[in-house]
Amino acid sequence: MWRFGRNPARVPRGADIEARLVSASLGADPLLRAGCEAVREGEASAALPLLAESREDPETRVVQAEVLGRAAADRPESVVELLGDGADRADVLLWLGHTLLARALRRPAGGADTRQADRKAFTAALDEARIPLEASARLRTDDAAPWAGLQTVAMGLGADREDKDRLWREIAGRSPHLFPAHLVRTRSLSATRGGSTEEMFAFAGAAADTAPEGHPLPSVLALAHAEHVRVEQKRLAAEGNTPFVVDKALGRLHGGSAQELFDLAQGWAAASEPHPGDVRAHHLFGWAFHRAGMTEAARWHLSAVGNVYCDQPWSFFGGARSQVARAMEELGVDPVRTTGGPEPS
């Protein structure tokens, strides 16, 4: 069970906290971060043992594929070369798909102010990523990881509901509680992506209620709240409300909804076992409780992340790193004194 309490030491200012924070984009696990550094330095083969060891662990495998894909995004040819060196084709194609996906997601994503040429380039890049992911899925038919990657591709392409539902069935049939896939599914059901607020909350709530004991899956409900608050903020801004009013929007994060999140978070904390999604879950709960004014709970969760920050859900409301630093400063969380975390680059 968690224990609340403020650290009595003086907390650094936001700029000092921000300088200490390290992105989770290259993983929170030291071995995975080391593998990513080797890949970035040109040693692509260093990733192969990681991918081989995770074949029976879909939670770890999806995270590794995503993170290693980002690490290799500037040199996809080094991943392609492994196909000719006798490496496991399903592993390499999974990695290549995520490498191309990471490159695609760097492009302008197709908002209202995105040029048509940029949108076409983004779509073409996502289509390119789909090819190796589908090939990996054919080679290792019990592997949920390629399907999780294809789900992200489909969301980026704005696929129709039938296609998104088909991909979800493929994932759920192989790994019914896969945390990263639930995060993407929640977002794909939002009103801005062809779903509805009610459907998104129904899915996230059901996932939270049926999660295995100690699994971080209940935090997907916090992600649904973040998506809803983002939509509410855009609506309020479009109606001409002041930035102060827009920033204070809570969506449904009050009363019984906030208490429900608190109960779910406390239940997870009481029974949790180490999981690759822990840092993401702490950030989701930490954001929600900070937004709802539940200071002690927010402080506890953001103290648990050390000096590692995640983009979601903070990036929905501005720069993720600065948003996390501001929240930590307001809550009295000091990642500067964290030991054992990755060093800032």
Structure characterization notes:
The protein starts with 13 loop residues before the first helix and ends in a 14-residue tail after the last helix. It is mostly helical. The chain is built from 17 helices and two strands. Helix 1 (14-20) crosses helix 17, helix 6 (89-105) packs antiparallel against helix 7 and helix 6 runs parallel beside helix 8. It folds into two domains: 1-21 and 178-345, no CATH class; 29-176, no CATH class. A two-stranded parallel sheet has the order 1-2. The radius of gyration is 20 Å and the shape is globular.
Percentage of helical residues?
A: 55-70%
Rg over C-alpha atoms, rounded to the nearest angstrom: 20 Å
Strand content: under 5%
As residue ranges, the low-confidence spans are 3-8
Mean pLDDT: 91
Through-space gap between termini: 34 Å
Q: How many separate domains make up the residues?
A: 2
SS-based class: mainly alpha
- Assign an overall shape: globular
Order of helices and strands: HEHHHHHHHHHHHHHHHEH
Q: Please tally the β strands and state the result.
A: 2
* Separate helix tally: 17
User: In order across it, which strands form the biggest sheet?
Assistant: 1-2
> Strand count, sense and closure of the main sheet?
2 strands, parallel
Organism: Streptomonospora nanhaiensis
Protein name: Tetratricopeptide repeat protein
